[in-house]
Structure formats: structure tokens, C-alpha cells
Amino acid sequence: MSGLPGENHLGPVLDTLCPMHAVLDATGQVIHLGPTLKKLFADRNLNGARFTDLFEIRRPRVGPTMDDLRRIAHGKLHLRLRDAPCTELKGVLVPLPETGDFGVLGGAIVNLSFGISVTDAVRDFSLTSADFAPTDLTVEMLYLIEAKSAVVAASRKLNLQLQGAKIAAEEQAFTDTLTGLKNRRAMDLVLRRLILSGQNFALMNLDLDYFKAVNDNFGHAAGDHVLQHVARVMVEEIRREDTIIRTGGDEFVLVLTQKVDRHAVAEIARRLIERLEQPISFGGHECRISASVGATLSCRYSDPDLSMLHEDADCALYAAKGRGRGCFVLYHAALRSGSGQAGELPERRVDD
Question: Which residues form the GGDEF domain (predicted)?
Fold first, then answer.
């Protein structure tokens, strides 16, 4: 690229007013590029390059010769770089006077702009405000885009914070603060969802035995410690798909949804009772508790009813307590008829 003849007076003017212009000679060869346009070809040798070697004219369709280019003079051009990143541009071609007043006979000047691809171009070619003409509104547009991006980013951050706060509030509303387990509100939602879906599940009620003695002998701090220990044991013993609820005081409910036949439920109850009977250390003392467990299976009911499930699980729990604590009873109809009253059932036998 030899440079623009007479550019000692014209070149600096065009470079300032139109930093993205190209001057072509009569053969279509590029003899001068504005400073910003040069940045787009920083790694390319432009000597002898023709305009159509550097740019693909997408609209209007035109041939590669200078005569072809002259035929689209003064009209809007849609172009893109032939080299990556193939930036889209717009432009206009103006033939130079045949008099040679600009030092070029039969040539042309093409002035280009990025249009809507300006933000990509700024990033791809590391452009700054100095790369645009002083009167170019692109700079103001970039500031507006940057300001809008900042506002959008701040808004997105605020929305995420609000969403996080909402999720935290919802989680808190369904969580027992002492143990981190679900609370009664969460239990109602879980059970209603399971009943509506028709999925089989087991409803297990668990009350701690001798918990009052812990509070009376060692204080409420010891009681809180025991409740937190019980929660950890339950989390360790049941499956992730199941739900543990603290309904209040020393009362818990477990909703089991995987492999809920009577043998699996009895095995879970056995493990829980066994672990909860192990001494719990607190403040140099050993706190001793146990657990009574009663359960019912949703598959027993042709049309499961939430209140009936709770009543039957409570009935089984009452029977377990009547057997001397540390026991598990699975609900069966005889519990209501009286033939399965506490004391008639061997300890820790699964009744069905």
C-alpha cells in the first residue's frame, strides 16, 4: 500500500474526519487506509491488496472490478471483513474526480462504519474513543451501551439478591430452626403432593421416650442438644428421597417414599430406635432416650386421606408407647378393634 498521493495535505484531513476511510486507485487497489481501518488489518500485509480482497460486498451484489464498484457509487453498501472475525460494516463509495485534484485518477474513496456491530468491533480490535471521528455519535452510543449494561448488571444482581432472599424466606418458612429439619407446613405440602401423584409412601410417627427427664435433669440446653443429635441420626439413617419433619417438641414425622413395604419400614424403625438408645454426651453428663415409632402405609388405602393417615399413624404410635417404649408398631385394623391393644403384643414385633 503505497499511500495517498498528496497526502501531506489531504491524508491528515481524511484521517481525522473519516478514520475508517479507504482510498482506491483506478484498478481498485487500496492505496491508503484511515487509522482506525488499519487496526482491522494490523497483522496483514496490505501491499498490492485490492479492496475486494479485504472486504466482501454483500449487498448490492457486484463484481470485483473498479468499473463494477463505480456502478454502485453513492449507494449504501453492506460489507464484511473477509478475515476473522468477519465483522459486519456499512459504507458508501464516492468516485474521485477525473481531474486528479485529489492526486488519484479514476479512483474512489470508501467511507465505512461498524453500525450495530460496533460493540463487537470495540472488543475484537481494542478500539477506544480516539479511534472514532470527533463528531461520530458512536462514542456517545458506546457510553449509553456501557451505562445500560451497568444498569442491567446492577438490576440482575439486585434480582438475584431478591430471588435469593425469597428462596431463603420460603426455605425458612418450611424449616425447623433448631434442627434444620422440615416443619409441619412442609409436611402438609409433601403429603398432599404424594397423594395427588398416586405415589406409595409410608407415614412414620416418632416420639422420643424419656426426653422430659433430660430437660428436667440437665436443662433445656441439654434438651436442644439431644434434639439436634436426633435430627442428625435421622438424616444419616434414611434415604435422601425421604423427608424428616419435626412437628414440635420431641415429636417427629418421617415420610418414606422409596421401597415402602412393611419389612423396609420396620428395618428403618429398628435402626432408628437402636441408635437413639445410645447415650448422648452433654456437659459431662450422659443423656439417655429412646423412641416409640408408629407407621402406616399409603398402599393400604384405596383412596388415601390425609387425616385418616395421620390418625392411623398416631394409633400405631400409641400402641408402641403402650408396649413399654422403644418399640415400633405398623398400623393394622386390629389396633382400633381392641384386639391389638398394648400389652398383648410382643416387644418390637412388627404388627400388620
Answer: 199-333
